[in-house]
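Input structure tokens:
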């Protein structure tokens, strides 16, 4: 399954290099993966550790996912100009 998500991410990056509608769809795919795989995964694992009252598997890498997802979202925002005045 991870290989499928990696393929989706690679296709999104390839589409973002194109112009027009393909670039928009590529940015949408990359944003979805940044939110779900990066930010969402990071927040979820941190919340699960809090709920468990201690260590939860994936806790240490969750912080890396959270930071990587946030950086990716910021870069996508800068590239696409969405929300930039």
């Amino acid at each position: 399954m991870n290989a499928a998500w990696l393929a989706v991410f690679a296709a999104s990056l390839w589409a973002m290099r194109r112009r027009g509608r393909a670039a928009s769809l590529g940015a949408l795919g990359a944003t979805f993966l940044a939110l779900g795989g990066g930010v969402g995964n990071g927040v979820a694992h941190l919340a699960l550790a809090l709920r468990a009252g201690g260590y939860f598997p994936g806790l240490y890498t969750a912080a890396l996912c959270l930071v990587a997802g946030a950086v990716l979202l910021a870069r996508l925002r800068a590239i696409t100009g969405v929300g930039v005045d």
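Residues 2-80 form one domain. The chain has three helices and no strands.
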